[in-house]
Amino acid sequence: MAGYNLEGIEAAPLKDDVDIVIPTIRSLDFLEQWRPFLQHYHLIIVQDGDPSIKIKVPEGYDYELYNRNDINRILGPRANCISYKDGGCRCFGFMVSKKKYIYTIDDDCFVAKDPSGKEINVIAQHIKNLETPSTPHYFNTLYDPFREGTDFVRGYPFSLREGVQTAISHGLWLNIPDYDAPTQLVKPRERNTRYVDAVMTIPKGVLYPMCGMNLAFNRELVGPAMYFGLMGEGQPISRYDDMWAGWAAKVVCDQLGFGVKTGMPYLWHSKASNPFVNLKKEHKGLHWQEDMVPFFQNLRLSKESDTAAKCYMEISKMTKEKLTKVDPYFEKLADAMVTWIEAWEELNPPVKNEASEELNPPVKKTQSDGEDVKAKG
Ligand SMILES: O=c1ccn([C@@H]2O[C@H](COP(=O)(O)OP(=O)(O)O[C@H]3O[C@@H](CO)[C@H](O)[C@H]3O)[C@@H](O)[C@H]2O)c(=O)[nH]1
Ligand SMILES: [Mn+2]
Hints:
Blueprint: E1 18-24, H1 31-38, E2 42-47, E3 62-66, H2 68-75, H3 91-96, E4 101-105, E5 109-110, H4 122-131, E6 166-175, H5 181-186, E7 199-201, E8 214-218, H6 219-222, H7 241-256, E9 259-269, H8 275-298, H9 308-323, H10 329-347, E10 352-353, E11 358-359
Helix pairs in contact: 7-8, 7-9, 9-10
The structure holds the ligand O=c1ccn([C@@H]2O[C@H](COP(=O)(O)OP(=O)(O)O[C@H]3O[C@@H](CO)[C@H](O)[C@H]3O)[C@@H](O)[C@H]2O)c(=O)[nH]1 and manganese (II) ion.
GO molecular function: transferase activity; UDP-arabinopyranose mutase activity
EC number: 5.4.99.30
Main location: cytoplasm
């Protein structure tokens, strides 16, 4: 396992370092089945839709619950950067958390089993992914070399074996796959039954469609880049919340020298959202993704952008410059991105670094950038 000692992680999966963020417009009954795995963690529930509806949190869970009135009260005029009637409202939970790691999950997801019939501990697996390095500069054909029972293969340069710090762990789904509305309409009965026992790093410079259903990340490293956009009621687009966050966060990870892993852990996604409703919500996004993806692929951030917040401000500026010609909506989105960073910084004031007396010191550079990185383990 490339010299990493992960003993203890399975038994004590950092319960004081992880917040679980759940956006919901339905009910939280799904938490009953998750008790063995999630009950030890603190929940941040973002209740979407009508705030007068009382939602019940299953007994025994430790939680904070925010509805739209709370978001308006806490953020004041800046609350307009948080989506309404879209799962993207979850990013409010990322902003109010004070923990190192976030795990976010949808309310129609359940515990999946691996092929041996064992229930999957999603958080333990995400933490393993996040606590071990990524390898974005060269692909390891046996996938994640930091998993037990595997290593770097022959021909893997020793100078790259240290890897880089992992910022995002993107988990997958059994049963209902994360398809767009047209694919759902064409294949209404398709189910994902294929459990692939693999975790891999998404290479540097490569984008991917990030789904928010089963996602963990290090908020200290990339929290400000995890903005789920301005979607839902009052906006021309929905359901691209996680996509927007995923493209931006990957560009930020590439810039700052962090890694993104995808693959295990799996959960069980139980409910297909209505494809006709989804098509209505998504149709502009289906067109715009042909411009949004090349936009992110061609983004080059300046050297001065050495924190996630600074990168994000630069991305906002470029969004306004390059995407407003696609639709005036992008100007509004770019402004909302700035508001998001302002709100983030207000709720997460910069910490003073005692050694250097510097505020928000730049992140440590990675090996590929020519500086030393010390691996744990
Ligand atoms: O207006 C809304 C709609 C939904 N939510 C909550 O968001 C998550 C995901 O919603 P849902 O299960 O309906 O959507 P899916 O199509 O199955 O999920 C994928 O779509 C993504 C885009 O938003 C999402 O990240 C994917 O997982 C549930 O918890 C809903 O309750 C909401 O808060 N407001
Ligand atoms: Mn769903």
